[in-house]
Amino acid sequence: MARLSPSERRLQKELMSLIKEPPPGVVVDSDQGENLSLWTINMTGAEGTLYEGEHFTLQFKFSPKYPFDSPEVTFIGPNIPVHPHVYSNGHICLSILTDDWSPALSVQTVCLSIVSMLSSCKEKKRPPDNSFYVKTCNKNPKKTKWWYHDDTV
């Protein structure tokens, strides 16, 4: 058996932890398999929120530099949450995914942050620049220079 890199060991540990103790409403896709660099995570909107009972899918892509490099995280599939910080192409404007990333963070903390972001939403609407952004953005949301100007939603 091939030896795992430090990045792969960390991902394997995080995957086991997420399967054993997932945040509420978060489930690792059962087809996760052996590919540690690409994860699919299913999420259900929390009770008592605008997204209660809605099902979403997150995709995590990890570079070989993880955890020193943040994962690329996007919503995928037919149900992208309508939220002021989520673009219709699934890109998420959340500072811990870029500028505020730290190796101390994990997939679990990212999932908790996204659940929290959705749970605190007061009105389902797209970001004001959604159409322009979706037409002009890079496929990789980490290449976007986000402007974090509204943390009240």
Structural account:
The chain has helices at residues 6-20, 107-119, 130-136; strands at residues 26-28, 38-44, 55-61, 72-76. It contains 3 helices and 4 strands, in the order H-E-E-E-E-H-H. Strands 1-2-3-4 form a 4-stranded antiparallel beta sheet, with helices on one face. It is α+β, with helices and mostly antiparallel strands and 153 residues long. The chain has one domain: Roll (Ubiquitin Conjugating Enzyme). This is N-terminal E2 ubiquitin-conjugating enzyme. Keywords: Transferase, Ubl conjugation pathway. It comes from Rhodnius prolixus. InterPro entries: Ub_conjugating_enzyme, UBC, UBQ-conjugating_enzyme/RWD. GO terms for molecular function: ubiquitin conjugating enzyme activity.
Kindly list the characteristics that best describe this protein.
alpha+beta; four-stranded antiparallel beta sheet
